């Protein structure tokens, strides 16, 4: 009976594994597989030892018979259910092999997790308790066979390995798995040399007892999740972990004797035996500390150091060190004798993109003199040629990798070889010659030839032609012409909710009160709060407004700074140097006697508000605080105006309206293909807006004729709305082009609710090799297309739009963030370690490629990275940089010699620039915190550097660049950041410009120092292809200057400020490049007559006049026109009247869309001609108290012309 059940489950697991390959490993199918492995583990336990336990547990024959019958009945029920379900699963597999669809994938869930199968779980749980209790009390009376133990352990370990979401017990289950693995490997090791089962009796009895208890506890974590049992379960697992490494004298003696017997044996080892040896050595290293504590140190020569099973502390340290060296020597020997079949646990995402990236690097490397010398004795040219040929073959068959297991295997082998090549090549470049018999260039050439032969065989096979035609209909590629994504959120169904919240904000008590918005994730709490926050009623009602995102992990100082930056557009320099206490007082001071609104978004506990409450004065004028949260209890009850506003789920009509608005904005009628799936869509989304938005992203990238199949597959699941959202997200991810998958998952490398500067994010993507190079576009433009595509698919949220057509900053939703973190780890793309508990327990995988750490400053003292394979290291502090603490990370730099991306911008290093950094020759991206030390000349060693971001912190000043900066020919992005002043700059060496190289790849430079008394033109010509420049112009009082910038023929964006020495009077004439699209000017104090030189630039779209850039009370537009300007901002100017000459048919701003007026205190008059503008959409006014009547006239003129859409926001 048992054997047939095991056979059925094994057959079902084989079919399920094939289905997992077909559907690309969705999480819900892994859960199904996990349930089957748990069933198999239980059947093995029940059939091997259940009968004995039943008989030994009681002397009452009737009770024994009843228990035995009950157990037999359960096994029969399991067998019947499995037999039937295995047949159904096989049928699904056969049909999916021919024509896979997600509808069939969801049938698998219904098949294996149907009601009859799920109903077995409580009874299995009760029997596990019985077996666990019996095994610890009665098992000494039973004979245990090694083969039975091994079969049970293998099944148990597979069930632990397959499931990755244990919730609260995640770390404990992982530790449990490692220790059980050690026990299994130990038994196999000692029995290599004919040690009999009878000699291992006490050990096998011990292993059986802990294995059954481990099975019971893991089953409880998986299928009996109850919050009230959390502490008890944690405690039980911890107790079991302490018992797994045997400490009982009898068991300990058995282990010692078994090791001695195996040591005396002279039996030769076969290939299988060598693998057993390798597994034992690996698990021994993982558990060495616990083994030494238990006294099981037979491999050490220092047996006399063991006294009564306990090591003295002084001996422990010596013994551990000595033993570790010996075991590592053994490990090296074993590795040489039987090399790993798969050395690299390589990323599973964007494999072909990585091969392309590698080929580009190889071609560049072999064409240089340094590369030729390095690879003189290595057949790198042959490797490159073979890889080029293989890549072309993979391009022909890669589309079928989800349809054909053989193609999947070929692709995987090719990608693994590519990662091996990169590892060998990069290691050679840093002086580590790893070319050996186990992994060499010669062996790789042969490996590629074998893979290539298989690929050629498949490409010549006629069976491909039909499949290619069929599969191509279902594949999703990056559109050749990207649609411009909708930057502003589409808000549907929240009108009544918003009106209700606005009413609570603007009416009621004059005392400070809290308005709380609560609801499950994905319902639109933040969207509603943002709609309210930006409404014209709210902006005109409250004098001060601030938006602050809190999240699960927050730091009070950061929150206070975020609030201050909202309520004051220009903060004094000393604010960023203030302590938490001073910042709290500063916030309170600026809010006193003002009617204010503060939004605290994504609050997780009441302590967040309690920590900020003292900064929110009760002015008795109707000030309000909005809290958004998943929980009801995050606000003090006495501060609430009324009960929290519980955000409801969408009605079916609202879900439909949102889907239409996302897919067909501005259109009332939907195409028939969308109408056909309306009912299934609204039922499937279960009123969760986020699911609607993600689904719209999927459908927008597909052919309309495929919509029905996708929606039917998703709508067949009977799950909660959050699970449905996750399933929809999984499908959305599956349908991303490969080159976008890595970019999307990269959001999981950062802290939760992290706001990404898009320029910096794009530089990271480029440095990581995620961006495919083209001849027609720069890498940054291609990466920007990737970002826009992710936005159009509703996977990325725009948090700060650019002035026109673009994204300044972005973020992702909490649910999407957690998906990225989990998926990126599962795909081996990167791993994020959060908080101290994860960091302290973190074990570095040997070939982890990207490591991202988000923790508190004091925890970095414990940071130990011993993996030389790391290519990306990102370090984030909770609460920003700690001024009082610096770190010495030199030992890390000496280990991670292959790193390409290194972000230390939140880590204060020791005072001098680390020399070890200069040895990281593969670096492409470096962000570092400046501490007053100069950039050394040896920076030129980083010849691959593409992005250098220098952030001033404790020492604020300009930064002089060494002469060798001109040798960094690959530099694309050079930036100096300083929160105190944007006038701190890079000073380029200009003594020998005639003999210096150009930085032809430089795309972004911020900030550059320019002195017109020197040859500016000669310096600027060193950056012939620059497109974005921020610069400071240094002038002397009384001089006349002519500044020519027109030599920058590619320049599109210029931010130019002026610093004048010795006074404020000078003559200045500037010639701008005709191609320029965006211009920002500050501190020039030019007369308004100079506007004519700016206004007529033919490609001008954005103009920002800030901080006394122009002076004079009257700006009368006469000659100048602004034919293409879409965005205009005037900020901190002394202008009183802004007028326009009344020429007939004169339109000064024929394309103006947005006008921003800020801190122009004296401004009274705005050109009335704006009332005739048909393109003007919005006027934002802040701190301009005297221009209200002029704005009203413009609004009235607009209405009289039939333009009713103009929004005027005054705050």
UniProtKB/TrEMBL annotation:
GO terms for molecular function: ADP binding; ATP binding. GO terms for cellular component: cytoplasm; membrane. One of its GO terms (biological process) is defense response to virus. Residues 750-819 form the Disease resistance protein winged helix domain. It is found in: Cytoplasm; Membrane. The keyword Cytoplasm applies. The keyword Nucleotide-binding applies. InterPro entries: Apaf_helical (IPR042197), Disease_R_plants (IPR044974), LRR_dom_sf (IPR032675), LRR_R13L4/SHOC2-like (IPR055414), NB-ARC (IPR002182), P-loop_NTPase (IPR027417), R1A-like_N (IPR021929), RX-like_CC (IPR038005). Keywords: ATP-binding, Coiled coil, Cytoplasm, Hypersensitive response, Leucine-rich repeat, Nucleotide-binding, Plant defense, Repeat. Residues 895-1060 form the Disease resistance R13L4/SHOC-2-like LRR domain. Residues 121-316 form the Late blight resistance protein R1A-like N-terminal domain. Residues 500-665 form the NB-ARC domain. It is a peripheral membrane protein. Belongs to the disease resistance NB-LRR family. Confers resistance to late blight (Phytophthora infestans) races carrying the avirulence gene Avr1. Resistance proteins guard the plant against pathogens that contain an appropriate avirulence protein via an indirect interaction with this avirulence protein. That triggers a defense system including the hypersensitive response, which restricts the pathogen growth. This is Late blight resistance protein homolog R1A-3.
């Amino acid at each position: 009976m048992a054997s047939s059940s095991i056979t059925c489950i094994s057959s079902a697991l084989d079919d399920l594994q094939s289905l997992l390959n077909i559907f690309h490993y969705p999480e819900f199918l892994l859960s199904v597989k996990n349930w089957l492995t748990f069933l198999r583990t239980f059947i093995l336990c029940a059939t091997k030892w259940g009968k004995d336990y039943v008989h030994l547990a009681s002397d009452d024959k009737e009770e024994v018979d009843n228990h035995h019958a009950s157990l037999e009945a359960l096994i029969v029920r399991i067998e019947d259910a499995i037999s039937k379900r295995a047949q159904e699963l096989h049928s699904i597999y056969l049909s999916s092999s021919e024509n896979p669809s997600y509808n069939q994938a969801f049938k698998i869930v219904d098949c294996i997790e149907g009601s009859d199968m799920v109903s077995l779980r409580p009874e299995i749980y009760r029997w596990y308790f019985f077996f666990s209790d019996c095994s610890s009390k009665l098992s000494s009376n039973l004979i245990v066979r090694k083969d039975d133990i091994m079969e049970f352990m293998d099944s148990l370990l597979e069930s632990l390995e397959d499931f990755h979401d244990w919730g609260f017990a995640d770390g404990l289950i992982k530790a449990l798995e490692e220790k059980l693995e050690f026990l299994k490997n130990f038994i196999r090791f000692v029995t290599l040399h004919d040690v009999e089962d009878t000699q291992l009796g006490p050990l096998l009895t011990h292993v059986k007892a802990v294995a059954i208890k481990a099975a019971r506890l893991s089953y409880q974590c998986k299928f009996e999740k109850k919050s009230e049992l959390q502490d008890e379960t944690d405690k039980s697992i911890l107790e079991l972990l302490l018992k797994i490494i045997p400490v009982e004298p009898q068991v300990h003696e058995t282990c010692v004797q078994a090791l001695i017997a195996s040591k005396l044996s002279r039996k030769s080892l076969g290939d299988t035996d060598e693998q057993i040896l390798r597994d034992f050595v690996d698990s021994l290293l993982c558990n060495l500390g616990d083994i030494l504590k238990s006294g099981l140190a037979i491999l050490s020569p220092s047996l006399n150091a063991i006294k009564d099973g306990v090591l003295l502390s002084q001996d422990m340290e010596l013994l551990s060190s000595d033993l570790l060296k010996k075991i590592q020597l053994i490990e090296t020997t074993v590795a040489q004798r039987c090399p790993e079949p798969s050395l690299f646990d390589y990323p599973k995402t964007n494999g072909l993109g990585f091969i392309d990236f590698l080929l580009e690097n190889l071609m560049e490397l072999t064409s240089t003199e340094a590369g030729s010398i390095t690879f003189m004795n290595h057949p790198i040219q042959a490797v490159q040629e073979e890889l080029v040929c293989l890549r072309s073959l993979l391009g022909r068959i890669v589309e079928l990798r989800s349809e054909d297991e053989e193609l999947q295997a070929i692709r995987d082998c090719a990608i693994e070889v590519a990662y091996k090549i990169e590892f060998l090549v990069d290691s050679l470049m840093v002086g580590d010659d790893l070319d050996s018999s186990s992994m060499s260039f010669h062996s790789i050439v042969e490996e590629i030839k074998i893979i290539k032969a298989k690929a050629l065989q498949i490409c010549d096979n006629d069976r491909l032609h039909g499949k290619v035609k069929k599969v191509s209909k279902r594949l999703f590629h990056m559109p050749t012409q990207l649609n411009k994504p909708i930057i502003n959120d589409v808000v549907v169904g929240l009108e009544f909710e918003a009106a209700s919240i606005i009413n609570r904000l603007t009416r009621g008590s004059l005392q400070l009160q809290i308005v709380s918005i609560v609801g499950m994730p994905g319902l639109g709490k933040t969207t509603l709060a943002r709609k309210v926050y930006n409404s014209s009623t709210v902006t005109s009602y409250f004098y001060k407004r601030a938006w602050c995102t809190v999240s699960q992990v927050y730091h009070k100082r950061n929150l206070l700074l975020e609030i201050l930056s909202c309520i004051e557009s220009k903060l004094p320099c000393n604010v960023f140097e203030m302590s938490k206490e001073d910042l709290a007082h500063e916030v309170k001071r600026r809010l006193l006697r003002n009617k204010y609104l503060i939004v605290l978004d994504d609050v997780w506990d009441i302590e967040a508000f309690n920590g900020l409450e003292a900064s929110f004065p009760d002015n008795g004028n109707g000030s309000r605080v909005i809290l958004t949260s998943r929980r009801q209890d995050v606000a003090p009850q006495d501060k609430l105006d009324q009960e929290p506003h519980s955000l409801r789920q969408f009605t079916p009509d609202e879900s439909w309206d949102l889907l239409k608005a996302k897919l067909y904005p501005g259109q009332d009628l939907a195409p028939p293909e969308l109408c056909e799936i309306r009912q299934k869509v609204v039922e499937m989304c279960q009123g969760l807006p986020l699911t609607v938005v993600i689904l719209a992203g999927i459908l927008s990238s597909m052919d309309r004729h495929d919509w029905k199949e996708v929606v039917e597959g998703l709508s067949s699941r009977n799950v909660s709305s959050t699970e449905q959202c996750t399933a929809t997200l999984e499908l959305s991810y599956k349908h991303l082009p490969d080159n976008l998958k890595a970019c999307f998952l990269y959001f999981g490398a950062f802290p939760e609710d992290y706001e990404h500067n898009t320029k910096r994010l794009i530089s990271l993507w480029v440095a990581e090799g995620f961006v495919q190079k083209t001849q027609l576009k720069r890498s940054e433009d291609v990466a920007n297309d990737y970002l826009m595509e992710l936005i159009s698919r509703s996977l990325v949220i725009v948090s700060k739009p650019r002035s026109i057509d673009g994204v300044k900053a972005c973020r992702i939703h909490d649910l999407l963030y957690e998906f990225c973190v989990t998926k990126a780890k599962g795909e081996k793309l990167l791993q994020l370690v959060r908080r101290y508990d994860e960091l302290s327990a973190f074990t570095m995988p040997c070939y982890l490629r990207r490591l991202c750490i988000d923790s508190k400053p004091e925890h970095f003292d414990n940071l130990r990275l011993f993996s030389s394979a790391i290519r990306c290291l990102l370090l984030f502090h909770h609460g920003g940089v700690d001024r009082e603490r610096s770190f010495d990370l030199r030992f890390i730099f000496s280990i991670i010699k292959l790193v390409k991306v290194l972000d230390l911008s939140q880590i204060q290093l020791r005072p001098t620039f680390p020399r070890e950094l200069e040895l990281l020759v593969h670096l492409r991206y470096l962000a570092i915190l400046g501490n007053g030390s100069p950039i050394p000349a040896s920076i030129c060693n980083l010849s691959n550097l593409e992005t250098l971001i220098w952030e001033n912190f404790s020492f604020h000043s300009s930064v002089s660049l060494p002469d060798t900066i001109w040798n960094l020919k690959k530099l694309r992005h050079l930036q100096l950041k300083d929160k105190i002043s944007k006038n701190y700059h890079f000073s380029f060496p200009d003594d020998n410009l005639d003999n210096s190289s150009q930085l032809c790849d430089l795309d972004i430079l911020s900030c550059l120092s320019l002195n017109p008394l020197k040859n500016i033109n000669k310096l600027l010509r060193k950056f012939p292809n620059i497109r974005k420049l921020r610069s400071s112009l240094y002038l002397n009082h009384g001089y006349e200057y002519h500044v020519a910038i027109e030599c920058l023929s590619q320049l599109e964006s210029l931010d130019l400020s002026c610093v004048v020495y010795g006074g404020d009077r000078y003559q200045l004439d500037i010639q701008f490049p005709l191609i320029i699209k965006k211009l920002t000017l500050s501190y020039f104090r030019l007369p308004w007559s100079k506007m004519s030189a700016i206004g007529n630039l033919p490609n001008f779209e954005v103009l920002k006049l800030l901080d006394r850039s122009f002076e004079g009370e009257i700006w009368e537009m006469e000659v100048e026109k602004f034919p293409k300007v879409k965005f205009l901002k005037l900020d901190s100017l002394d202008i009183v009247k802004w007028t326009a000459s009344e020429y007939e048919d004169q339109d000064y701003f024929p394309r103006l869309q947005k006008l921003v007026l800020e801190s122009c205190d004296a401004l009274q008059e705005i050109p009335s001609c704006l009332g005739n503008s048909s393109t003007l959409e919005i006027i934002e006014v802040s701190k301009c108290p005297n221009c209200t009547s002029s704005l009203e006239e413009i609004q009235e003129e607009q209405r009289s012309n039939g333009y009713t859409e103009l929004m005027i926001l005054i705050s």
